[in-house]
Amino acid sequence: MTRYILRRLLWGVVLLVLVLALLFVIFRILPTADPAKLRAGRIYIKGIFLHFNLGYSYYSNAPVKELIFNRLPATVSLVLGGAVIWLFTGLSIGIISARRAGSKLDRATMGTALVLVSAPEFWLGLLVLFFFASDIGKVHIFPGAGSYVGLTTAPGKWFTSLIMPWVVVAAGTAAIYARLLRGSLIETMSEDYIRTARAKGLSERRVVLRHGLRSAINPIVTVLGIDIAILLGSSVLVETVFDIPGIGRLNYVAITHSDFPVVQGTVLFAAMFVILANILVDIAYAYLDPRVRYS
């Protein structure tokens, strides 16, 4: 396992270098922006590997690294909070639907899941603001757009300001997880080792949670790691709708101002998150499924 992890980490570094090279070509050669600005930048790859220097913003002249790190806590708060909600909700609904497959409850939950999967995030965000925001909503319950504060500044306000964004982030993903787990668990519960466990007299709850879920959850582990990694680097829609000062919002503003160093930096971070997530997913497989062995 150690050799496998080291090998994957090395390949991850190689992939990151390729991403860096591609970013350099795309943003320094291909764009048709101000030629003076395009030629004034430092040698990008050398600066990253020797000094972790992501360059400077064309718009604010601030270090890109500093801009990203300042915005990272807001994005992490949004994504991890949403992940807790979508994981708990999606797994719970998936298990219930699988155990009652074909029932009215199953059809209702899967129908609702299909609607949520089809609904765009920005539309859901505008919808919950219209109904529940304290400033413009029909029912004044939760703080509206632009109300985000840092966790260390005011924990209570931090929590309430993220309730609606968390729900919007979690809604569609929870629906996908519920449908995915339902199908996987129904298939798993027909396996021979499940029938053997039942024949031994184990309760149905124990058979489902201890034996069936452990195998059926493997597809969830795959998409969970990738979903979190992608959102950490590109939660643009939700952050823009709720005016959350995260990496996605930073990327959106940088694109509107043709601020290529900032866009390069955010894309690089997104690629790094995805690479690390793939490695962690492979490691998790080895612990969840005893049939998986790496060397």
Q: Could you characterize what this model shows?
A:
The protein is mostly helical and 295 residues long. It is 75% helix and 0% strand. It contains 13 helices and no strands. Mean pLDDT is 81; it is low at 36-42.
Order of helices and strands: HHHHHHHHHHHHH
**Strand elements, count:** 0
Report the total helices. Answer: 13
End-to-end Cα distance, whole Å, is 5 Å
Largest sheet: none
Uncertain segments:
36-42
The percent range for helix content is over 70%
Mean pLDDT: 81
Strand content: under 5%
Radius of gyration: 22 Å
Q: Quickly give the structural class.
A: mainly alpha
Shape: flat
Structure at a glance:
The protein is mainly alpha-helical. The chain has helices spanning 2-28, 35-40, 44-51, 64-99, 104-118, 121-132, 155-188, 192-199, 204-216, 218-234, 236-241, 247-256, 260-288. It is flat, with a radius of gyration of 22 Å.
Question: Which characteristics define this entry?
Answer:
13 helices, 295 residues, 75% helix, flat
Q: Helices, strands, pairings?
A:
Blueprint: H1 2-28, H2 35-40, H3 44-51, H4 64-99, H5 104-118, H6 121-132, H7 155-188, H8 192-199, H9 204-216, H10 218-234, H11 236-241, H12 247-256, H13 260-288
Helix pairs in contact: 1-13, 4-5, 4-7, 4-10, 4-13, 5-7, 6-7, 7-9, 10-13, 12-13
